[in-house]
Each structure stands twice: as structure tokens, then as C-alpha cells.
Amino acid sequence: MGDFLIINNVTKTYLARRRTIADFILRRKIPYIRAVNGVSLRLDRGKTLVLLGESGSGKTTLGRLIVGLEKPDSGKILVDGEEVPYVGDKSYMRSKLRGKLQMVFQDPSSSLDPFMTIKDIVSEPLIKLHMPKNEILRMVIEALEMVGLDKSFLNRRPIELSGGQRQRIAIARAIVTRPELVVLDEPTSALDVSIQSQILNLLVKIQRELGLTYVFITHDARVARFIADYVAVMYLGKVVEYGSADDVFNEPLHPYTQALLSSVPKVGVRELPKTISGEVPSAINPPSGCAFWPRCPYAMNKCRNEEPQTKVINNREVRCHLY
Ligand SMILES: Nc1ncnc2c1ncn2[C@@H]1O[C@H](COP(=O)(O)OP(=O)(O)OP(=O)(O)O)[C@@H](O)[C@H]1O
Ligand SMILES: [Mg+2]
Question: Which protein residue has the closest C-alpha to ligand 1 atom 18?
Fold first, then answer.
């Protein structure tokens, strides 16, 4: 499914809580959370990959790994043949990917300093890249125009703007460096429904104009359907199904994907949506075998004992003992 973005067996663990002095004295072990657990994915340039899954499935962690805001414990991420540098490493300053990977966060009210001017907010990434001053203003105005705002916004501040305008500013800041890949972490979920589709359409327009590759994070199957070329369905840190949006939405294979998608009402169908029963189990102590078995309507004995490996079925990858 492409080689512009290659994610190769990436794992990221966190300590479940901070280590305290008492932990030291008592030599207590703190449990780990495998936020991302052996994920491999590939994507072509110019396409949109949606990471779909419930809360805690590891979507944001994977997004942060893709842009270098986190460092994998093991595995590799390559963009256009270059290994993604971790922003905290020395090699970051020399990497060809500097400025080429950007991320837009869920809530523009917390990701933008409310008291900075729009000009300063959108210039910031260019200043970090040591762009010449006279270029900066031109590039900032260009980025604002791309998100449908004009020069009159330069000296305004986020606090004076609506939620939709703030998210446009966050997008302008992400595209001002002319990146190649943008991770969008639930970019519309903090917005009013009426504004959501405006922003989604804007993102599609910008993608076409700049030839951008998107990794779009959402828990909303309808948003996924609208924007995705490819979908990776995540459950407790693992990809359980990965394929083209058409294949996955028309014929979801994994029982988890089926449950997620059945909560989207189909046109003309008057059936009540079947919701997924139960809650996502704890990431600290995930179930043995297939992590989905406690909630799965098809669970067999094998599912409790043996972890399903990834298989290629009907043009996609799926991790399930049914196949
Ligand atoms: N900095 C961190 N320290 C400790 N645990 C973390 C950290 N970041 C994430 N986690 C844990 O890793 C797991 C995956 O979290 P992540 O935020 O990636 O999920 P998500 O799919 O983005 O969820 P949501 O839909 O709620 O945003 C969760 O169990 C979370 O508690
Ligand atoms: Mg998240």
C-alpha cells in the first residue's frame, strides 16, 4: 500500500504511573502500558490514512511517533526513505525531515497560546527553521490565505476568534513550513457539528493543493468514511484491520471493526445501531490471547489462549482467528 510512509514493527511503552521514592525504597516494580504494540503500516504519498479506534487504543501515541514527538522503544518509522528523527535527539537538527512533518491537535483552544498574535503563532515554525525575515511574512500570509483567512487576522489573537477560526490558524501553522506529511489528531472533534464539515472540506482542499500525505486520527467512523483512503483500526495498541477505505467500510472483517462501523446509521436502514458491549480492558493488564475476546461475539477457546497473527484476506490485513 505504498512506501512513502513505512511503519515497521513499532512499539512504545509508558510507565503506568510516576515512580515515587517509596517505589525505590521498596523496590516496587511499576507496570508498563504498551500504548503502541508492534504496529506495521505502509502508505503512499498524497493519501490519507485514518487511525480509527476507541479511547486508549494508541492513536495519539502512534501519531506522535510518526512526527518524531515520541521515540519508539523498538521498530522504525521512515518517511520518503528517511528515518523519522526524534525531536529530542541531536540528529534532528541535521535531518532532511525537519519541518516536513507536522501535527495538528484536537483542541485549538489549548494548543494555541490565546494571547499571542496570529502572526507570531504562524511564524513560529519558520523562525525555528531560520527562514529569512522578509520571507516569513509572505509565507505566513500565504498560509492564512490557504485556510481561508486574510491579512486582517495577523494582529488578532486566538482569544478573539471562534473555534473554527482557531483550528484554521492551527492548520495554517502546520502547513506554513510546506510539510510533506501532516498528522491530524481529531482535528474536528472539539468543534460544533456545523463547523466540522467546513474544516474537513478545507483539509481535503489543502491536501490536493499541496500534495500532502495525511494521517488522520478519529474515533468517529463517519468522519473516517469521509476522509480516508486507507483505514487502520486500532485496539489496545495493535492494528486489528488495515485496508483501503472501500474494502474496510464495505466489508469489515474483524469483529471489532464490524462493531465500530455498525454504530454508524446506514441510509434507509431503520435498525437500532448495535453498540459494542463492555468497556475497553485495562492497557496495564490486557487480556491474554486476542485482546478483544472478552467483548467479541465470536470468541472461541483459541482466542483466549493464542494471539492471532496478521493475515492478508480480501486485500487487507486482519488479526483474527476467524480467518
Ligand atoms: N505520556 C503517557 N504516560 C503514560 N501513559 C500514557 C501516556 N500517553 C498515553 N498513555 C497511555 O497509552 C495508552 C494509549 O493512549 P493514546 O492517547 O495514544 O490513545 P488514543 O487512542 O489517542 O485515545 P483517545 O481517543 O482517548 O485520545 C492509554 O492507555 C494511555 O493512558
Ligand atoms: Mg488521542
Answer: 58
| Nearest protein CA to atom 30 of ligand 1, as residue | 56
Ligand 1 close to Cβ of residue 59 (< 6 A): yes
pLDDT digits (tens, 9 = 90+) for 262-306: 866 555 444 444 556 777 777 787 888 999 999 999 999 999 999
DSSP secondary structure letters along 130-148 = T--HHHHHHHHHHHHHHTT
Is 116 within a domain? no
For residue range 174-221, what is the model confidence (pLDDT) as tens digits?
999 999 999 999 999 888 888 999 999 999 999 999 999 999 999 999
Within-domain flag for 230: yes
The boundaries of the domain holding residue 88 are 5-100+179-254
- Decide: helix, strand or coil at residue 106: coil
Please count the structural domains in the chain: 1
- SS3 at position 26: coil
Predicted TM-score of the model (pTM): 0.93
By the CB criterion, residues less than 5 angstroms from ion ligand 2 are 60
Of residues 63, 100, 70, the one with CA closest to residue 88: 70
